[in-house]
Each structure stands twice: as C-alpha cells, then as structure tokens.
Amino acid sequence: MAHCHPALIVIDVQRAFDEWEAAGQRRNNPDAVARIVDLLTAFRKHRAPVFHIRHEGTKPGSTFRPERSGYAVKDEAREQDGEPVIVKRVNSAFIGTDLEARLRAGGISTLVICGATTNHCVETTTRMAGNLGFDAHLVRDATWTFDRVGPDGETHSAESIHAMTLSNLNGEFARIVTAGEVIASLAAVRQ
Q: Which CATH superfamily is domain 7-189 in?
C-alpha cells in the first residue's frame, strides 16, 4: 500500500447480521468486527479517510429496511463526525451512490475494504473497485459470511465460501491482506 491517501471502506456493519445469528444462522470470522474496530482506530489516528456504507433493504421482509432494528449500524463501528455514510440499495457500494465521485474528488486511488458479507456486498464492491481502476485491498480477517445452501441442496460452510471468495478476488480484483498488515502499512506511509 505504497500509495498515499488510502481510504477505509466499511461495508454494512449493521445489526441485521446479529439478528441473523440470533435466529440460528452460522457465520465465520467471529473476530471480524474487532478487526474492523482496529482498522477504524488506525485510520482515525492517522486522519485517513473513512467511508461507511449502509445497506437499505427494499424488499418488504428485509431485515435491512430503514424502519427495522437491523438497519442500525453496530455500535462498535459507528461513524464519527466528518465520516460520510453512503446508503446503497444493491450489493455494490458504487451503484446508485456518489462513492466513486467522492473518492475521485479526494484523489483517493487505494481502498481498504472490510465489512459484511464476504461473498455479497463486500465481493461485489471489491470487484467493481478493481474494475474501476482502484488499488483495492480486501481485509480477510475483517469480513465474514454465513453458511449457505447451494442450488443442488448442499450446504456450504461460511469458511469455505469465505475462502473461495478470497481466492476468486485475489490478484485480479484486489490484494488480500490482514488488518495487521494494513495497520502496519498505514503507519509506515503516515510517518
């Protein structure tokens, strides 16, 4: 991450995912939110830009509808004054939002991406970031997903889905990194 001005993109760290877990859905990376907090702390310390992405569900039963409790951001990842919150209604944080325009206006070319879920909004945003020419870094220990049933009826574990998503994105769309590597790089760039 030798480029100046990396931005942290925090995707959908919302209470709906806690509700999914409480309802019995199994996830991986139980420490992902703690790693997101570490990243937020480091970016704020170095006065690097932070963008919060919030998902607004549009389907009647969505746990992410704005009037439902799941729409709220988790307390640990709440934005601070001056940190923009960008609301999206589809998987990509670049579709129907001004995220790209804000990044370009700020001269930001390097993105550090974290949040939920690995194989949905994080993956879609990361793919688009790569396609749009951003130097994307996906933080493997600061994202998570849930078990899913495939079209053949087979259950796929959150761990295997997470690993496959990282494999799919690695190299072509993003560099796969850890929170520790990002924090060390940020400290080195900011000295």
A: Isochorismatase-like (3.40.50.850)
